[in-house]
Design a protein that fits this description.
alpha+beta
Length: 296
């Protein structure tokens, strides 16, 4: 729950790919009530949702939250084709539409009478992908070249170009960007963790571009040791394909992550979370972070 004090304001954010609207054929059921239950238990103030696919309004209504569908204005709020959406306990301000609704969109959120932040929800194409890239017969340099061989360079370059005006004004309006990047982090494939990555230290390109733009990785900032806290956010049962590919990034001198967690179990398995048990509905884990904003 958001807490406002004299000089500081605390709030929490979740990013979650709920997998085909929480109703993937693989789970064989309507998992939306589990999605709702997990979000309620998290007490998240803001939710950045991926693979909304028609379930967003139902979820937002159950939470009693404001709802922003990242789609052309006038699109039905339960349109099953829309990927991204944002929900918030706080009221919305201006919407920010970019080049491609399926990849990114944002909105201004009014945390208090004096304070506004910008939040952006993002999805990057999963290609190229390999369940265990460290087993590919490629050097670290060649792995980075391979990573850039798909659409990511164009997507990331376009997104960051659109974000530039907002990234330059984060002392006035702090910025949070979350999403399913479908790619590994350079902060995870380090010298300290190379023994679990086939002896490879890989400076993955995509995540470095966001870091170079001044965005901090909330989870890795709070949990700096990738071996102790790998933060697995995606993986399928009975496969060796577990990776951290979902992120909450932020930028502002007035904003600081004070805690961050990633929770995941295989789909249709029990998730024990904050004293409750849920039948997990997604192939992705969720990333949760609490932030402290120093008021102007």
């Amino acid at each position: 729950m958001a807490q406002e004090e004299h000089k500081e304001l605390e709030f929490s954010v979740m990013v979650w790919n709920i997998w085909h609207g929480g109703k993937s054929e693989s789970i064989g059921r309507d998992g939306v009530e589990d999605v709702i239950g997990i979000i309620k238990a998290s007490e998240s103030d803001i939710i950045l949702m991926i693979e909304t696919y028609g379930s967003g309004k139902r979820i937002a209504d159950a939470l009693g939250y404001h709802y922003h569908l990242i789609a052309q204005q006038g699109t039905a709020l339960d349109d099953p084709a829309v990927n991204l959406s944002i929900m918030s306990r706080f009221p919305f301000g201006e919407r920010i539409d970019f080049y491609n609704y399926f990849n990114i969109g944002g909105i201004e959120i009014q945390l208090s009478e004096e304070e506004k932040i910008l939040v952006f929800d993002t999805w990057l194409n999963y290609q190229p992908w390999h369940d265990q890239p460290h087993l590919m017969e490629k050097s670290a340099e060649k792995l980075v070249d391979w990573e850039k061989s798909g659409t990511r360079t164009k997507e990331v370059g376009t997104i960051l170009a659109h974000l530039q005006p907002f990234l330059q004004n984060t002392n006035e309006r702090p910025l949070i960007l979350g999403g399913d990047f479908n790619v590994w982090s350079h902060l995870d494939w380090t010298e300290k963790s190379k023994d679990v990555h086939g002896g490879k230290e890989v400076p993955w390109w995509t995540t470095r571009q966001f870091e170079n733009a001044g965005l901090k990785d909330s989870f890795r900032e709070i949990n700096p040791n990738p071996k102790k806290h790998p933060g697995i956010s995606w993986g399928m049962p009975n496969k060796k394909d577990d990776h951290r590919i979902d992120y909450l990034l932020y930028k502002s001198k007035r904003l600081k992550a004070i805690s961050s967690e990633i929770h995941k179990v295989d789909y249709n398995q029990p998730l024990k979370f904050r004293g409750k048990t849920f039948n997990y509905p997604s192939d992705h884990g969720f990333v949760w972070a609490k932030y402290k904003l120093i008021k102007k």
